[in-house]
Amino acid sequence: MSIPTLTHFVGGARLAAHTARTAPVFDPATGEVTAQVPLADATDIRCVIDDAAAAAPAWGQRSAVDRAHVLFRYRELLLAHQDELAACISREHGKVFDDARSEVRRGIDVVEFACGIPHLMKGEFSDGVSRGIDMHSMRQPLGVVAGITPFNFPAMVPLWMLGPALATGNAVVLKPSERDPGTPLRLAELWVEAGGPPGTFNVLNGDKEAVDALLVDPVVQAVSFVGSTPVAQHVHTTAAAHGKRVQAMGGAKNHCVVLPDADLAQVANALMGAAYGSAGERCMAISVAVVVGEASADALVAALAPRVAALEVGPPTVGRPDMGPLVTGTHRARVAEYIGIGESEGAAVVVDGRTHPRASGPGFFLGGTLLDRVTPAMRVYQEEIFGPVLCVVRVASADEALALCDAHRFGNGVAIFTRSGGAAQDFAHRVRCGMVGINVAIPVPLAFHSFGGWKDSAFADHNQYGMEGVRF
Ligand code: NAD
């Protein structure tokens, strides 16, 4: 069987790349290469940016109402193609089909929010600021803006950026992850089918070379990035130094604090989804459970261990497995290495995902792992693993738990489980973290709020979507 080579998306259609460089796209469930994705060269990059620049003025001059009509049609088409998009995500990313469907839905939520753009772009008016003089301010499009996205949400994260950027009259160059480019290409096709003018949503497939060109190109006015912390820092400093507006979301190590009065059955249920859903490849996954008191920790580990060992791991579209494979063989090897590091650092390996029967197969599978008695000095505590590994840290008091959350370099999301309203409120006010869940393990804001972390989980000033996205 011949392996197709994917394209860019320029001027309203798929366009064969100029570059000869490519990267393999895998089916993570089988380990097979299903396509080659082009890695843009300077000629590709210029062509994609210039095409967006040609389309931007006319789109920006259309009325907000007119643009909203296109967004309404886009929303309808995305809904109609939700299953097709989810299947594409499962095929290239490996997350289970229901999870992929939810991802598409969360992305559509942002497009739905952006349909209200005539209201959201209203300016301000002051009557009579001086004799005979009124004053008004208005929001205007920037022109060409870029979105650079990670592998783990190939539909949702692009739509976080595309909804507000297109609605406010900009032309977007999307540089998706080279791991799963199929879904972003379909998102662009559906935009044109919805009536989006050619050139207003272009896809530039590529790697660091494409990203670095977008960060310095004078035509690009703003850069929105979501991905790992080192790259987020690089994007933030480079794009800002070249005079661009920047959003830059980075990695995470989300803690779940369990107070002694928590409902442990509820905590165990929540952690099974939050730590092992999408094989832990979520920036809002819980990867650390900070349990107050030895008795609670013993009970929680006893409740989790058999469930983690029994997680059904398999191909994402066959039956209803709990977890699919990891995205690549390289990433699986990295996560497995971390389990070994935890073991050698002295953590108790209660369940070892490396011994799962599927972990030795050709697909990139790994079972769920539960590490107990993890300490803050360990690398498995400090570093983002981004796989199905939950670390349990035992502490003596709620203050100690709060101090751990605050001292961690990442501050994306955090959760607390308690029956005490006072303790929850106190924690939510004091913890230094972007998004806080109270008896909710994955506190992802809906589209009319906004998404953002603190510390090394986000750089620059603006959060994603909601009014933050519109202002950006
Ligand atoms: P990544 O940083 O490797 O890649 C993200 C994007 O940057 C991709 O488009 C990639 O092509 C590009 N890129 C990679 N290396 C680069 C380099 N050296 N220079 C310039 N560009 C480069 O991230 P990933 O592995 O695709 O995604 C997983 C990471 O994203 C995790 O760290 C996860 O926590 C994070 N993430 C964060 C959020 C959030 O909102 N905070 C959301 C999703 C994922």
Q: Main beta sheet, described?
A: 7 strands, mixed
Q: Which percent band covers the strand fraction?
A: 15-25%
Are there runs of 5+ residues with pLDDT below 50, and where?
A: none
| Fraction of helical residues | 40-55%
User: For the terminal residues, how far apart are their CA atoms?
Assistant: 46 Å
Description:
This protein has 472 residues and is an alpha/beta fold. It has 16 helices and 21 strands. The strands form six sheets. The chain has a seven-stranded mixed beta sheet with strand order 14-15-16-13-12-18-19, sandwiched between helices. The longest helix has 20 residues, at 42-61. The radius of gyration is 23 Å and the shape is globular. The mean pLDDT is 98. Nicotinamide-adenine-dinucleotide binds at residues 148-153, 157, 175, 177-178, 207-208, 211-212, 226-228, 231, 234, 249-252, 283, 384, 386, 412, 453, 457.
